[in-house]
From TrEMBL:
SUPFAM superfamilies: Annexin (SSF47874). The lineage of its organism: Eukaryota, Metamonada, Diplomonadida, Hexamitidae, Hexamitinae. GO terms for molecular function: calcium ion binding; calcium-dependent phospholipid binding. InterPro entries: Annexin_sf. It comes from Trepomonas sp. PC1. It comes from the Eukaryota. This is Annexin.
């Protein structure tokens, strides 16, 4: 498919035709031409030209997969905070980790503003109160809380950080978590990459593989790996979250990640980030059938 954006006025005409014919794949290919800000303009213009609400028209379609397209027109940060709330209530930890740890500092501010506006609660407080009701996952909630609270600006001694990380191998689990959490939520991406390179040079193992060796709990290991990958590059973090969802055969998570991130890491960017895990196109099509697979791939421009 061609992903060169057509003028929005032309897109409005095409969208109307494809809604009438219930052609979801064509609609997804049009949406893949624009980002979430431009889709807001499309929403306004569609209402002005056709005197109809585009989101409602999409909601009224009985065609399978129309919900994926409808979700693209939600405010990105409201959509994000809605799913954080949903996963907090159902305590789906690996989904929640993806939604929380993938936030950049700028995105944290917007998601938290949205969360407070919609739910009249502070996300900090919710994470703290939730962790106290689920003792098994207290460390994971604490890690998410620390990550959101921290703005990564700290200057560090690289050798000291590498030595502190290496020494956790013989520590108790709670100490390992405390040290890794403190380091990985308090240094910025540039410093973290330098620390990772120095760690591998000194200890002949990648920091990522070291994390796999020292954390036994599956959820805590995923939290640390995801945070590691986000610091290496946000597209790496997105790829890791997608791989995790594919392994769990969690279709809803793949759709959520597609709606939130396909605007940012389309085509070669997501393929490159995912390649250490396999072939993204093939893996998506193993989980999703026919048109749904094609719709998701078209949004990622694959």
């Amino acid at each position: 498919p061609m992903y060169q954006p057509v003028p929005i006025q032309e897109a409005i005409k095409q969208i109307k035709v494809h809604i009438e014919s219930k052609n979801i794949l064509q609609l997804s290919q049009i949406m893949a031409q624009y980002n979430f800000n431009q889709r807001y303009d499309i929403l306004q213009l569609y209402q002005s030209v056709n005197h109809k609400n585009l989101v409602q028209e999409l909601a009224d379609l009985t065609a399978p997969n129309s919900d994926i397209i409808k979700n693209l027109f939600e405010n990105r940060y409201d959509y994000w905070s809605k799913f954080i709330d949903q996963k907090l209530r159902t305590q789906q930890m690996e989904n929640l980790l993806g939604l929380v740890l993938l936030m950049t500092d700028k995105e944290k501010i917007k998601v938290m503003q949205s969360y407070k506006s919609v739910y009249q609660k502070d996300l900090f407080d919710v994470l703290l109160t939730t962790q106290s009701t689920d003792h098994k996952m207290t460390d994971v909630y604490q890690f998410m809380y620390t990550q959101i609270k921290q703005v990564n600006k700290q200057q560090v001694d690289h050798n000291d950080v590498v030595d502190r990380l290496a020494k956790v191998k013989d520590q108790q689990c709670s100490v390992k978590i405390q040290i890794f959490s403190q380091i990985m939520t308090s240094i910025n991406a540039v410093i973290f990459k330098q620390v990772s390179e120095l760690f591998e040079m000194k200890h002949k193992v990648t920091l990522r593989d070291f994390i796999k060796q020292i954390f036994q709990d599956k959820t805590m290991m995923y939290a640390m790996l995801l945070q590691h990958d986000c610091l290496i590059g946000q597209s790496q973090g997105v790829a890791t979250a997608i791989k995790n969802a594919l392994q769990r055969k969690d279709k809803d998570s793949i759709i959520t990640l597609t709606v939130l991130w396909s605007d940012f890491y389309r085509g070669a960017a997501i393929q490159e980030a995912f390649k250490k895990f396999g072939d993204l196109k093939q893996d998506v099509c193993k989980l999703f059938d026919g048109e749904q697979c094609q719709v998701i791939l078209s949004l990622w421009r694959l």
